């Protein structure tokens, strides 16, 4: 349509905006190959692959990565269960508390992370709970629920109308209806929500600084390097790998929810 | 005849909204029963009460003699054909049809055989492997029908099942549903807002308005002997004549119903002014006014029609004017 | 064949449980909502209220021991000039970031919602999604690289012989500094960069809900494109902008990592909270500081709700 051409100024502004969002990340990719190891010199004096080998041989990076994967996996499972239950309840009826519940789910992500973090920390202190792997998971699962919930609730609404009635009409009890009708229809939304929850937890640093004791997740490891740089090239390589690794679940979630009513990232 | 569905004083209120209000109803076994009414009149809610998707706020529903109270939908031997068909998008056609048998625990070979049989009955042999999204509206409708019937329900509930189909397909499906019902011999309860559909298919029709049943009867009775102005107007757009006018003609002061096709041009009778003339094909509709009483008449094909503004003389047979004493 | 009106199939444990749940729908909802409500209610809200409670305690200035008595003394401390400066600085920064993000983000959202079709639609969608979801720390880190004295931005200014301009800019008090990486401008840029996607998505969602026929109707009624934008599109996009501003404002208010890595030594609320609860051990004051963003956001959300911004979330 002729009337539907974008004005040139708008095209340029939109293009620049998009470039602004992506160029800094691309820059990381260049720095991962630089030979310079004392400063952030640009342009890089030379290119090398040796930092990949150095990073590969660093046990602290591997430990941090492994801890992050464990935390993210368990937090995601908890968030999946809680988020699905919540979405099921909210989509099912217009019970009086549904606005309250929605607010409660969104609150941990709507309020600044530092508040969630310091609240949990002081609560752990008050209750004499020692910091551990599980205190990190506790915090992460809390703010991951909203991602699963947001992905599931829209899909639940669509399924819970006549499809559920049809299933019950044909003789399936509540459990069979869940197993054979609801679950297959919400599975992609749940998978997408789970992936995003994983990405969110894998990346989280603010709450984690308050709920982790001596444990180092990968973001905590990076934060240490940012505040007190020790070996910059290793940080560069880790940063690049983190970018690549987090893109996978995002792409996956996008393809899973494409063409549906759910916008994958809206939970964050 | 035994009673298939019986409502005794059944109400379904949502706060102040009386979706179904103190309805009594008795549907006989093997009957083709239509629930007719405008949207929001309570007909669909009544159907959902039978299926078990809604719970009555008052009154008692009996399904084949058994009190339905507390019995979930999946334990009621009635099945529903939904308005939007509600086919499971993740299952192919065969598994959709076999769903009821699957959850009942029938082995795969047996239930697939039954599903293919049901598909054959609705003339969809060979469509079993397709997804519902690959079917046309009419085909989906048949799948929904097969899926309900494969469970051998004692009563089949149909919620505006033909609403989404185009006119030609709808007429064809009306015929097929009617003959299907005759051959199966089970009770069909059919919800529609289309009076033509209700009249042509049903053994009996219940006309709903504002949550209540205003008239129950055979199609001919509903059509020719409406009991209230609402029924006269809604079922086939009769002329509803005001009580004063009817009193002048018959001496009984009550609303009268006069079918448009019963009014004809005549040598003697009532003097009327022509207000509008619309050519409908097989007939022509003339809007007239006798004094201050508006009326429509349907004239069969003819060479000469009156023109707007003409004064004509119209008349009708005395027995065609139906006096509605009840309203 | 027996013609049962009611089937008793599946009358096992699950079947009977299902019957019970059907007869008491409230019970089902209750059971569904119980675990998430308990988790969020006890763990999250419980902690939050514990924190709020602590803000009403005070710390003994000599012994450093928390006195568990109700007092508003700690809140009064927030109004000491040094503390109040922190609050003011943070709010100004949050407002600047919000305005900046709306200005940069609107064209992107507008183009994506109105003009991008097919492949470009997907590119724009992922183009916003990817930065949104890519690692927060990596994004911050990338700006440390960019803004460093020996980094790409300085290099560009030098290459274009515009070094004098940058130096003149950095000489301006408040927003300038020794180099971009230790200036308030640097902090602003990083905030803007990191929170920008949170602004774009709600605007895009709001714009996409505007039916095309409505714009055609406006054009049909004689509005020039600029008028259509001003009188139809922009008012309809406004809830999206407000929804986005909730994110950018709230996230900036509570962040303590970005100003710590890129910026001057002047502190923000988040840093104050972190410092008071950590090394200083003054939990009550940290708690009182934490209440500030909550209150600000509560007011903000209340205004936003009245503007109908929640529909665009």
Automatic annotation (TrEMBL), chain A:
Alphabetized PANTHER family for the sequence: PUTRESCINE TRANSPORT SYSTEM PERMEASE PROTEIN POTI (PTHR43848:SF2)
UniProt KW keywords:
Cell membrane, Membrane, Transmembrane, Transmembrane helix, Transport
Q: What is its main location?
A: membrane
* Keyword match Heme: no
Question: This protein is called what?
Answer: ABC transporter permease
Q: Which PROSITE patterns match?
A: ABC_TM1
TM segments? 12-33, 64-88, 100-119, 131-149, 180-202, 237-256
Where does the source fall among the domains of life?
A: Bacteria
Subcellular location(s): the record lists: Cell membrane
* Topology in membrane: Multi-pass membrane protein
Family (UniProt)? Belongs to the binding-protein-dependent transport system permease family. CysTW subfamily.
Q: Which organism is it from?
A: Sedimentitalea xiamensis
User: Which residue ranges does the record assign to the ABC transmembrane type-1 domain?
Assistant: 65-253
UniProtKB/TrEMBL annotation, chain B:
Domain ABC transporter: from-to ranges: 5-235
Keyword flag Membrane: no
Q: Name one Pfam family in it.
A: TOBE_2
Q: Which GO terms describe its molecular function?
A: ATP binding
The UniProt record lists the keyword Nucleotide-binding: yes
Superkingdom is Bacteria
The UniProt keywords, alphabetically, are: ATP-binding, Nucleotide-binding, Transport
Can you name this protein?
Answer: ABC transporter ATP-binding protein
Which organism's genome codes for this protein?
A: Sedimentitalea xiamensis
UniProtKB/TrEMBL annotation, chain C:
Sorted alphabetically, the keyword list is:
Cell membrane, Membrane, Transmembrane, Transmembrane helix, Transport
What protein name applies here? ABC transporter permease
- In its keyword annotation, does this UniProt entry include Cell membrane? yes
Keyword hit for Methyltransferase:
no
| Record PROSITE patterns | ABC_TM1
Q: Which Gene3D superfamilies match?
A: MetI-like
> So where does this one cross the membrane?
26-52, 86-111, 123-143, 155-176, 188-207, 236-258, 279-303
Q: Which Pfam families match?
A: BPD_transp_1
Q: Which InterPro entries match?
A: MetI-like (IPR000515), MetI-like_sf (IPR035906)
Taxonomically, which superkingdom?
Bacteria
Its annotated compartments are: Cell membrane
What is the recorded membrane topology of this protein? Multi-pass membrane protein
All copies of the ABC transmembrane type-1 domain together span 87-304
Instruction: Give the family this protein belongs to, as stated in its UniProt record.
Output: Belongs to the binding-protein-dependent transport system permease family. CysTW subfamily.
């Amino acid at each position: 349509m002729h009337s539907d051409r974008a004005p040139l100024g708008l095209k340029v502004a939109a293009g620049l905006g998009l470039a602004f969002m992506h160029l800094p990340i691309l820059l990381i990719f260049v720095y991962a190959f630089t030979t310079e190891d004392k400063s952030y010199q640009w342009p890089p004096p030379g290119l090398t692959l040796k930092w990949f080998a150095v990073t590969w041989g660093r046990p602290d990076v591997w430990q941090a990565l492994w801890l992050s994967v464990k935390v993210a996996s368990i937090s995601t499972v908890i968030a999946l269960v809680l988020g699905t239950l919540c979405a099921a309840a909210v989509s099912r009826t217009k019970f009086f508390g549904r606005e309250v519940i929605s607010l409660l789910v969104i609150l941990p992500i709507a309020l600044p992370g530092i508040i969630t973090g310091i609240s949990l920390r002081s609560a752990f202190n008050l209750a004499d709970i020692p910091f551990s792997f599980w205190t990190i998971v506790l915090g992460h699962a809390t703010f991951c629920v909203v991602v699963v919930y947001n992905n599931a609730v829209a899909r639940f609404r669509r399924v819970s109308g006549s499809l559920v009635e049809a299933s019950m009409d044909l003789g399936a009890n509540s459990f069979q209806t869940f197993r054979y009708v609801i679950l297959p229809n919400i599975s992609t939304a749940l998978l997408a929500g789970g992936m995003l929850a994983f990405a969110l937890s894998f990346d989280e640093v603010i709450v984690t600084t308050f709920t982790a004791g001596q444990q180092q997740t990968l973001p905590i490891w990076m934060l240490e390097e940012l505040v007190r740089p020790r070996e910059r090239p290793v940080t560069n390589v880790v940063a690049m790998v983190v970018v690549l690794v987090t893109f996978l679940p995002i792409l996956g979630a996008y393809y899973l929810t494409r063409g549906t009513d759910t916008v994958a990232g809206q939970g964050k | 005849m035994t009673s298939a569905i019986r409502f005794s004083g059944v109400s379904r209120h949502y706060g102040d909204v009386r979706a179904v209000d103190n309805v009594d109803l008795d549907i006989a076994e093997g009957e083709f029963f239509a629930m007719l009414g405008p949207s929001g009149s309570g007909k669909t809610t009544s159907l959902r009460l039978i299926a078990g998707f809604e719970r009555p706020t008052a009154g008692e529903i009996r399904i084949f003699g058994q009190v339905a109270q507390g019995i979930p939908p999946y334990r009621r031997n009635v099945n529903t054909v939904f308005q939007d068909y509600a086919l499971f998008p993740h299952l192919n056609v065969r598994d959709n049809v076999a769903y009821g048998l699957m959850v009942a625990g029938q082995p795969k070979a047996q239930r697939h055989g039954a599903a293919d049989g049901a598909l054959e009955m609705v003339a969809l042999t060979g469509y079993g492997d397709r997804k519902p999204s690959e079917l046309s509206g009419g085909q989906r409708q048949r799948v929904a029908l097969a899926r309900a019937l494969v469970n051998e329900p004692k009563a089949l509930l149909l919620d505006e099942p033909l609403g989404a189909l185009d006119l030609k397909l709808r007429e064809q499906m009306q015929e097929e549903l009617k003959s299907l019902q005759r051959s199966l011999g089970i009770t069909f309860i059919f919800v529609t807002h289309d009076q033509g559909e209700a009249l042509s298919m049903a053994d009996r029709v219940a006309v709903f308005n504002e949550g209540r049943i205003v008239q129950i009867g055979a199609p001919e009775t509903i059509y020719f002997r409406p009991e209230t102005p609402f029924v006269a107007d809604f079922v086939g757009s009769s002329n509803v004549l005001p009580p004063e006018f009817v009193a002048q003609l018959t001496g009984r002061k009550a609303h009268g119903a006069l079918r448009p096709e019963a009014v004809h041009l005549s040598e003697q009778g009532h003097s009327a002014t022509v207000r509008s003339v619309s050519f409908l094909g097989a007939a022509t509709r003339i809007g007239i006014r006798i004094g201050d009483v508006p009326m429509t008449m349907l004239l069969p094909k003819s060479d000469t029609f009156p023109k707007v503004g003409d004064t004509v003389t119209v008349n009708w047979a005395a027995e065609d004017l139906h006096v509605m004493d009840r309203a | 064949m027996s013609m049962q009106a009611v089937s008793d199939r599946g009358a096992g444990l699950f079947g009977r449980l299902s019957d019970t749940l059907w007869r008491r729908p409230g019970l089902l909802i209750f059971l569904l909502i119980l675990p998430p409500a308990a988790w969020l209610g006890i763990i999250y809200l419980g902690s939050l209220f514990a924190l709020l409670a602590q803000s009403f305690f005070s710390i003994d200035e000599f012994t450093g021991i928390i006195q568990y008595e109700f007092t508003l003394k700690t809140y009064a401390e927030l109004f000491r000039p040094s503390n109040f400066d922190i609050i003011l600085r943070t709010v100004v920064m949050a407002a600047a970031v919000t305005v900046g993000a709306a200005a940069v983000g609107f064209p992107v959202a507008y183009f994506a919602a109105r003009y991008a079709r097919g492949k470009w639609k997907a590119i724009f969608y992922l183009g916003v999604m990817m930065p949104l979801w890519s690692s927060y720390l990596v994004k911050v880190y990338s700006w440390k690289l960019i803004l460093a004295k020996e980094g790409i931005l300085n290099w560009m200014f030098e290459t274009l012989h515009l070094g004098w301009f940058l130096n003149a800019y950095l000489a301006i008090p408040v927003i300038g500094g020794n180099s971009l990486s230790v200036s308030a401008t640097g902090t602003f840029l990083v905030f803007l960069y990191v929170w920008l996607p949170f602004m774009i998505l709600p605007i895009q969602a709001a714009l996409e809900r505007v039916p095309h026929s409505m714009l055609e109707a406006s054009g049909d009624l004689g509005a020039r494109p600029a008028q259509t934008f001003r009188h139809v599109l922009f008012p309809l996009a406004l809830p999206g902008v407000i929804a986005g501003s909730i994110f950018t404002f709230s996230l900036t208010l509570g962040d303590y990592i970005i100003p710590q890595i890129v910026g001057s030594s002047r502190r923000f609320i988040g840093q104050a909270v972190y410092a008071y609860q950590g090394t200083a051990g003054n939990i009550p004051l940290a708690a009182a500081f934490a209440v500030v963003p909550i209150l600000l956001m509560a007011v903000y959300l209340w205004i936003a709700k009245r503007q109908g911004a929640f529909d665009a979330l």
